[in-house]
User: What shape does this take?
Amino acid sequence: MNSLLRFGNGSWDMNNAVQLIKYSQSKGYKLAGWELGNEPNVYKGHDVVSPSQLSEDYVKLRNILQQLVPGSLLIGPSVTMLVGKTVQYFVDFLKGPGSNAINASTFHHYYGYEGNFNLLDFLNPKILDNLIPEINIAKKYTKEYCPEGTQVWLGETSSVWGEGKPGYSDRYVAGFMWLDKLGLSAQLGIDTVMRQDFYGGQYGLLNSDGFPNPDYWLTLLYKLLVGSKVLNKNMIEMKTKITPEHLRFYTHCTNIKRTNYTKGSITVYGMNLNAVDAAIYFDQYIESELHLYLLEPSDNYGLTSGNVSLNGRHLEITENGNIPNLLTPKVVRNPVIIPGFRFGFVVIPSANKNICY
Assistant: This one.
């Protein structure tokens, strides 16, 4: 919703929002949720709407939605990264009545500005970790000021802001940031991650011709294999000689709704940020069959490749416009080899984890 339509006293003019809601209803559109404004703490060319005022405006929007579209999700305040002054804006919004109007608090996250990023930054564990304190801030203040059950969402996120970095955020190397962000977010209790974006800029899942970038295939494979139940990192014993900070892995119950895997299966996913191949031993499953889904560049451009292969098979849309079958694992046993600067998924069908039943 446009939060800059205001009356003389500074309060939000809801008339345009009401028209948009009614129009959407007349067309039968089913919207996932509603939000009032985008990054209100950094409006350019306008006076910034104060957090206390925006908080009151969210109550007005909630009342409208209850009348016209009962049960709608309302999320906000949709601020930029939770650093510096943005943290105070986020807190002041939640201190106001808007904290009782939203279903989820939202903030945005990027690892930095595209103009300052180089190739190795996409592989830097310290840079990947800069998401952690921002999630912790969002969770802390949401718990403090919002009703119990209010979720925390990453309302907009990708690798680098400024519409991405050409030749990097639309290439294979961007997958390290994306996959790690999905893993960290789930591990730290983020309920929803909203990718910026599906199409457009240099960080879209689709390129300017409408064909998949590497992150598209990574996202699709994630949605197929990874279930919503997150497992404790220590539940799966992994041994390798690679420095721990360069091996970043996460564990979930396997998604059995989109695959033929059975209850009790688990999916381990992550990356090798080292140039050296990593031999990973799953000590609890020494004799078990393991299903490997390894995503690699499928041409000679390496990390800056715009093409990706799955277990050596180049991925592309078929001639009749369909998505190829991705559930084609390579069956391996311990150790699982993750080559240097590569990422992927390992499904353990025989894990038989009670928590996944």
Remarks:
- The domain at 233-356 is CATH 2.60.40 (Immunoglobulin-like).
- Residues 51-68 form the longest helix (18 residues).
